[in-house]
Amino acid sequence: MRGEPCHYPDDQRVDHVLTLIAGEPTIPLEAAIVARVREALDALGADTDRPVWLSPGRACDIPFADLSPCQADAAARVWIGERVDVVAQPSADRRKRLLVSDMDSTMVTAETLDELADHAGLREPIAAITARAMNGEIDFVQSLTERVALLKGLPASAIDHTLSRIETMPGAATLVRTMRAHGAHTVLVSGGFRPFTEQVRAWCGFHEDRGNDVEIIDGQLTGRLVPPVIDAKGKLATLIAIAGQRAIPLTCALTVGDGANDLDMIQAAGLGVAYRAKPRVAAQSRARIDHGDLTALLYLQGYRDEEMVVGDRS
Predict the structure, then answer these.
(1) For the chain, is the Cβ count within 10 Å smaller at the N or the C terminus?
(2) Would you call 104 a catalytic residue per the annotation?
(3) Distance, CA of 215 to CA of 209 (rounded, Å)
(4) Which is the catalytic residue, given 49, 102, 231, 262?
């Protein structure tokens, strides 16, 4: 099943859409700014249609043709405020049938391994390794192996204590439950530990989750991972495998993440979003959300406020 598309006044003419999303509820997206952006697109030779408001004062589409998405993005950024996200994309297959999402710093606000390390008094050295890995400065599997080794002897009960401190990202449950309600298949895939992915799956409402296993013997972490390890290639393989199993073209897939190990799946999907991402990832991703919460990914698909299934973690 695929979601219903967002209909425009003249669907046959416009083949792209530029979406503007205010990043702060207290700083609304002004109609005057939208009008200026449309004028800027027209000045570059675009054929634009009237703006379509998905959320009053928050999210607006400008349908257009005869201009590349990169040109539309560049023109829009001249006029938008500092807290407005901008994404231009083809309007075909806009509503995605598959969601594959990263977990740490994407669906949840923290890096779960860093939070777990806090119980061992090792947050600072492990967080430093995490930051380098997520920005692509060091190999992910090597960095994960090093971080897990430092946790040798940590009681397994620390995982449950860490879970009690984890918070979901604003809009996470609404994103997942809305796409699911409109027929999309939803998958959480992470280089983090399976106990965390299982809980976050339940909180947000994902159909399934994939995570790494850490060896536990006699109630303690041994400091070893259980292979195979999910890394960037593993995330991409998950996307491709599930899309194939469900006969969903990659053009109809949405992927989202923030770190270097998400980049392959972000670049492979029809709509790959770098969400509040590390600099290298943001620079190499076609779509970026730097300010808004995760409901921004619904606006990018043309969902209106009244279509959203608002949810808190359960």
Answers:
(1) N
(2) yes
(3) 19
(4) 102
